[in-house]
Structure prediction request, 534 residues.
Amino acid sequence: MAAEYEHRDRCAIVGIGATDFSRNSGRSDLTLATQAALAAIDDAGLVPADVDGIVRCSHDTVLSHDLADAIGVQDLNFWSEVGPGGVAPAAMVGQAVAAILSGQATTVVVFRELNGRSGRRYGLADTAPDRVGGAGSYDEFFHPHGLLSAGQVFALIARRHMAEYGTTREHLGHIAVTCRERANANPAAQMYGRPLTLDDHLGARPIADPLHLYDFCLESDGACAVVVTSTERAKDLRQPPALIRAVAMASGPAPQPGMMYPVLMRQTITELPARHVAETLYRRAGVGPADIDVAQLYDCFTITVLLELEDWGFCKKGEGGPFAASGAIGLGGELPINTGGGHLSEGYVHGMNHVLEGVRQVRGTSTSQVPGAQTCLVATTPLPPASALLLRAA
Amino acid sequence: MSRLRPVDDDLDTGPFFAAARRGELVVQRCARCTAVLHVPRQYCRACGSWESTWEPQPGRGELYSWTVVAHQVHPAYPTPYTVVLVELPDTGARLIGSLPGEPALQVGQEMEVWFEELAGGVVQPNWRPLGPETDQSHST
Prediction:
């Protein structure tokens, strides 16, 4: 059993890089990826010739060797990809750790890029086909009835949570407002300088009721990248290393197939695979929820955060709403979350901006720094399976 | 633009739509241990059997959740409309349906199936609230 824990603290994130986040980057996916990767490599005090591994997300249009070619990697000895989509980022860092500890690479760039607003928008349905589904997608059970987007799936989840536990729209509003407050302090956030009140949230137009406008993340153009290397090597580099205490991926039993829609057939829809990721990550890291100083929780929608608060054990099942409304998730609360503004108010880079913000917290350089933060949870735990990592100050 | 039609001849899910064309609502079960195989697939992970049957279901279920779609994401689906998630008794299988507009609904209320004919002979089960006028005429 001990072998399972051998990656503990042995690798570190030593560089972070991001482009601006916008509604229209005016640049290609390759340009965005290149800019983020070069920024991360430079932040680490390295040069592209030092890089020998690249990990991408299955939703990227840029391939690993596209980026290797673009930045001038001399010989790409390791590449890998994780998906689907937003469940990938922590697991992508995990791939880098695995490559380094197994001797397949020494210095790995992990990146995610998307023109998610000006290009392919995940909030819109694909209008090309007339016949939908088949071939293992199971879309034939969902799309013809007009269930066509992730927001609509999470709206069904939210309604059920409201029915089972008495969760309210106001509870969700506290999550939106909290993320907005952090973005208001972050000049890189798309919602910098644009405050949001609880009344704004409650009065906003419905998108897929019970979820309204501010329950949804910001479709964004942008890219993020990090550089991972061994903790030993990290000592000689420019930045204080963010130690990767542990990583975990988990599906839980009977995750259901497909990209997203069949999750509605799970025994319960008000619990995310986050519960299983949490169990594995806490065990591998040797910590529990009380040891987490600050958390970056995947926030495609407010309801996703509410479920994560429960499934990560920060409060009891069903109490995510009152917990969020209590001020616990604010700066100065017992569990400050999404300190860069998150997907709801910084930008939507499919979980990778959460990894970068996690590194800033343990470096002590966040625009909403949690004083003395030693451990930061980065949970990329929507659906269907999911992943997470725990970062620690050196 | 016309509404999306399901692929109804998939190797794993085709029999569900073939039954709908006959006016039957079916759910797949393992022929050996009777585990529910939903969404449909051939192999039973519970007992290892590859044999399954398509079991006719009563045409009623319970409203498990719903959402009123107010923001249009597809040209063939003008808003508002309501997507319902219905849980079947006995099997616990859940199916999606849709209703026009934004009717008053409540989690747990009884729903009944109806068979929606789409272009080209494609038929899919759909769901509506069980009303007093349909209470006796239910035939599936």
